[in-house]
Design a protein that fits this description.
By secondary structure, the protein is mainly α. The chain has one domain. It is 77% helix and 0% strand. The radius of gyration is 18 Å and the shape is globular.
Length: 265
C-alpha cells in the first residue's frame, strides 16, 4: 500500500468504528470504490488495535474501577461497585462471540456484497431513526437489568452482517430500552472492547497460519492514525449526540445505501 491508502483506511476505520455507520462496510467499500488492492489481514489487525487503544485510553478511569470491582465480586461472589457494569459488558459479548464462530464463513464470503451492505445501511438506519425519535432522555448504563444486557448483546450479534454497524445496532437497542443517548453510546463503546479483542485474536490466528508478508511500518502508521481518529471520534460524538441526536447519521446511512444500490444493482 502507498501512504495515501494507509492514511485513508486508518482514519476511516478509526472514525467509523464508533460512529453508527458501519466500519466494516467502509473498509470493504473503500478498495471497491477506489480500485485499490485489498489492504490485507495484517493491516485490518493494526487499525483495530488502534481503535482498541483509543477506547481503553478514553474510558481508562471507568475501566480501572470496573476491573477492580469485578475482581472483588469474583472473590466475594457479590456484586460490588462497578462490578455489575463489568459483568454486563462481559455477558453482553457472549452472543456475538458465538454467532461469529458459527457464521464465520458467511460473514467473510457471501455477505461481503455491496447490495447486502446497502440494504443493511438503510434498514438498520431507519431502525436507529425510530429508536432515537422514541427515546425520552432516560436512564444511564448502570441501571441495565440482565434482560436488557441480553437484548443488547443479542442485537450486537446482528452486526456480523456488513453494513449493520456494531455501534449503531447496540445504540439502537439501548435507546429502545430507555437509555439516554449518551448512556446507550457509552455502553456501546464499552461493549466494543471485548469484541475488538476477540476479533484481533481470531484475525491474528488466521494471519499466523497464512503466508501473508507483514509490512510493519504500514501497521505502525495504521495503529497510530486509527487510534487518534477513534479517540477524537468518541470525544466529539458524545457531545454531538447530546445536542443534535442520531438523525444526521441516519441521513448519511440512507444516502450511502441508495448510492450503492444505484451503482451495484
Amino acid at each position: 500500500m502507498d501512504l495515501l491508502q494507509i492514511i485513508i483506511l486508518a482514519v476511516v476505520q478509526g472514525l467509523t468504528e464508533f460512529l453508527p455507520i458501519s466500519s466494516s462496510a467502509h473498509l470493504i467499500l473503500v478498495p471497491v470504490l477506489t480500485d485499490w488492492p485489498d489492504q490485507g489481514l495484517s493491516f485490518d489487525i493494526a487499525v483495530h488495535l488502534g481503535s482498541l487503544g483509543a477506547v481503553i485510553c478514553y474510558f481508562r478511569r471507568e475501566l480501572a474501577a470496573m476491573s477492580r470491582d469485578w475482581y472483588r465480586s469474583v472473590r466475594t461472589r457479590e456484586l460490588v461497585g462497578e462490578s455489575r457494569l463489568a459483568w454486563a459488558v462481559l455477558l453482553g459479548t457472549i452472543p456475538v462471540g458465538l454467532a461469529g464462530l458459527a457464521l464465520k464463513g458467511l460473514v467473510e464470503n457471501q455477505w461481503r456484497s455491496p447490495l447486502v451492505i446497502a440494504a443493511s445501511l438503510i434498514g438498520f438506519g431507519l431502525l436507529l431513526a425510530w429508536s432515537d425519535w422514541k427515546h425520552k432522555n432516560g436512564r444511564d448504563e448502570h441501571s441495565l437489568s440482565w434482560q436488557d444486557v441480553a437484548i443488547i448483546g443479542g442485537a450486537q450479534a446482528l452486526a456480523l452482517i456488513p453494513g449493520t454497524s456494531r455501534s449503531g445496532i447496540t445504540m439502537t437497542a439501548g435507546l429502545f430500552l430507555g437509555l439516554s443517548r449518551e448512556a446507550a453510546s457509552r455502553f456501546s463503546f464499552l461493549l466494543s472492547i471485548p469484541v475488538i479483542i476477540l476479533a484481533i485474536g481470531l484475525e491474528t490466528v488466521t494471519l499466523v497460519r497464512s503466508d501473508e508478508v507483514v509490512d510493519w511500518l504500514s501497521m505502525l502508521i495504521g495503529i497510530a492514525l486509527a487510534g487518534i481518529a477513534a479517540y477524537l471520534c468518541i470525544h466529539y460524538f458524545l457531545a454531538f449526540i447530546r445536542r443534535v441526536g442520531m438523525q444526521p447519521f441516519v441521513v448519511y446511512r440512507i444516502a450511502l445505501g441508495l448510492l450503492l444500490f444505484y451503482f451495484f444493482w
